[in-house]
Amino acid sequence: MTPTLVRQHPSHAGTTPRVDLRARARDWSEIQERMLVPLYEAVYERLDVGGGTRVLGLGCGSGLALLMAASRGAAVTGVDSRFPERLDLARRRLFPGTPDGHGTADTHARADAVRVVEGAPRDAADPSLPAFTLVTAFEPIGCLAGDSDGLAELLAQATPLAGRGAAVVLAGWGPPERCATTSVLRVATKLADPLRSAGSWRPALRDDLEEVAQRAGLRPDGSGRVACPFGYADTDSAVRGLLSTGLFDAAIAATDREQVDKELAEALHPHQRPDGTVWMPNVFRYLIARTP
């Protein structure tokens, strides 16, 4: 039997929570990732993603957005440096029928159409391939203080790989009053507060995306809002899905998993329907910018 991969996360509170990263990656791909499908669809439809599109997906995770672009005929490359377990799932999705997710001779022959790279955007550079025509950063910002800082660096590495005038898409949380999940995310801040160095929740600001684009030297070229409700089969599924985002890691480090599970379940209670399902309407915003 293959041993379960467990990674230890350092805790400023003097404890070391143990996280089963394979289980978390499965929860992400099976429960949480699909919540942003309306966002992916809206962007791809607006930009007419298809056979002539070359997509570079930043923070691609387990690859659902890449798979959707590939199904429209686009050539896709995904990069992620934070979640190798999610990347394993992305490879299995994008190279079906290969147990290790790394492909066979046939899949390697189409490596110019489908690529998954563990590392930074610069690691996806390949002078033998055409420039990217679309760069996506679908992980929404505007949830934790400072959560856009790393994005600017990713864009700085990614934009030189894109052609002149290529589209770059950034995503963010909508106004708190239109995001029911806001009240649930505040649990992370409340429990993590003793960790002064941890990020804290803050509402999304109107110009978050524009500021990131400006820092990256990009030119805004349109925006939109998309309804992305978070729906779960039950409270347990909702807790697992939300924990898979990593947004509650500081809270777990400050207290413990049991406490976080309990308070998350309580915060989800107002969103539970009579049939036991959990439903939280949300609105996300996206910005389309252009490379110089």
From TrEMBL:
* SUPFAM superfamilies documented for this protein: S-adenosyl-L-methionine-dependent methyltransferases
Per the record, the GO terms for biological process are: methylation
Highest rank taxon of the organism? Bacteria
Q: Does the keyword Methyltransferase apply?
A: yes
GO MF annotations, alphabetized:
methyltransferase activity
The protein's matches in InterPro entries, at most eight in alphabetical order, are given as: SAM-dependent_MTases_sf
Which keywords accompany this UniProt record? Methyltransferase, Transferase
What's this protein's name?
Methyltransferase type 11
According to its UniProt entry, this protein's organism is: Streptomyces mutabilis
The taxonomic lineage of its organism, from the top, reads:
Bacteria, Bacillati, Actinomycetota, Actinomycetes, Kitasatosporales
